[in-house]
Amino acid sequence: MTNSLSENFLWGGAVAAHQLEGAWQADGKGVSVSDVMTVGGPDAERKITQGVQPDEYYPNHEGIDFYHHYKEDIAMFKDLGLNSFRTSIAWTRIFPTGEELEPNEAGLQFYDDLFDELIANGIEPVITLSHFEMPYHLVTKYGGFRDRRVIDLFVKYAEVCFNRYKNKVHYWMTFNEINNQARFDNDFVVFTNSGLDFKPGENREEIMYQASHNELVASARATRIGHAINPDFEIGCMIAMGPIYPETMNPDDVLLAQKAMERNYFYADVHVNGEYPESLLKYWDRKGFNIERTEDDLRDLKQGTVDYIGFSYYMSAAVHKDETLSFDDSNLMNSSVDNTYVPKSDWGWQIDPRGLRYALNWFTDKYHIPLFIVENGLGAYDKVEADGSIHDDYRINYLRDHIEQMKLAVTEDGVDLIGYTPWGLIDLVSAGTGEMDKRYGVIYVDKNNAGEGTLTRSKKDSFDWFKHVIETNGEEL
Ligand code: BGP
């Protein structure tokens, strides 16, 4: 057992194409689902519009214009000392509608240039193929992943990327937070995850499971093909992890928490073991769900298992069993109660660093494969002082407390951890709200919720702090 992180530990930052690139129509890019989402606000969720409406504000259209600023940004990442950087490829830059016969060369070239710039600066790209987006055309024509024809369209897109970047990218992930859609009551998460736009009266839960299955098959086929293209590729899944605790020691609470974990994390079982857990199949039977699974699908799931689990960790949750909530309740995923032992962020996200150690141990005990923390961070309001400085000690505290727990999981518990890429290291558009003011960055970007600002980048206090953490490979926090 080592007493410190490995020498080649990946210290990075994580972002997603649609939240920072902007340039939504540049060089042949098509409209993606993220391009039709308006800004929300503290009291309102983001709205999904039917196509792009001239009088609406779509924050993703400009993002922080990373498309045109990436060289300057990568220079700051180098100064910070990053040796890795997680971003995604926008599917719509490569296949604008998702159905073209040939990929869009200008889109492919953009990522060639971006990856070259990262590599030239000693930064390894870590790439997600679909981070909360797909061509909007696939939503209007097929209803997103509810239609299995979308499987082949994704696999073709993945294959093009694997071939093109096979000598530049080593770490891949297929779908970002694929399990988020388990909360199918939330229009926004199912739309961003799998392009689902429900019609009144539909059985949302059953459709969500079908879309999830189709996406899992798409992921497995892509993974199998990726390994054939370059056997050195390490291809992972990406799971949104928030451990679900029982509110009390009442066995009913304990069992409810276990059931909620099962229903939220079966996606990892399929990715890692190549098959559905028995408990989920039995749940589908009890509910009378008929989820189409062909022989080929089941074979592909078996053959396309992942090399590591990438996951995001922001918070934990807790559940409480009462007479209104059965173990089979469709709404289990939305039944979280307050955990009074931990504080909350301004957006109500429970801040629980020890939950990260718990999550690392839970994944390790269950799956025994390497892990990669590909998102973690605190969304907060920042105040720019008269001299331009930003004193974000709350962010430093959050990151320090989580890194401490991460280190304990590695050094004391023996977790095999590839790296740590905190979310939104440079401020970007919030996925959940569409706002700029929910900031995660150690790099500040001058832009507000209404889209005003110079887009100038500057360092927050957390920049120098994180730089020192990386320099000492996490020894000095
Ligand atoms: C994860 C997503 C990211 C991201 C982050 C923070 O769920 O993978 O895309 O944005 O959460 O969420 P938010 O932006 O809503 O604060």
Automatic annotation (TrEMBL):
Its keywords, alphabetically, are: Glycosidase, Hydrolase
One of the GO biological process terms: carbohydrate catabolic process
Which GO terms fall under molecular function for this chain's record? beta-glucosidase activity
The family this protein is said to belong to: Belongs to the glycosyl hydrolase 1 family.
Identification of the protein by name: 6-phospho-beta-glucosidase
**What are the coiled-coil residue ranges?**
none
Question: What organism does the record attribute this protein to?
Answer: Weissella minor
GO CC annotations on file: cytosol
One Pfam family cited in the UniProt record for this chain: Glyco_hydro_1
Q: Is-annotated flag, keyword Hydrolase?
A: yes
In this protein, the active site sits at 375
- PROSITE patterns hit by this protein: GLYCOSYL_HYDROL_F1_1, GLYCOSYL_HYDROL_F1_2
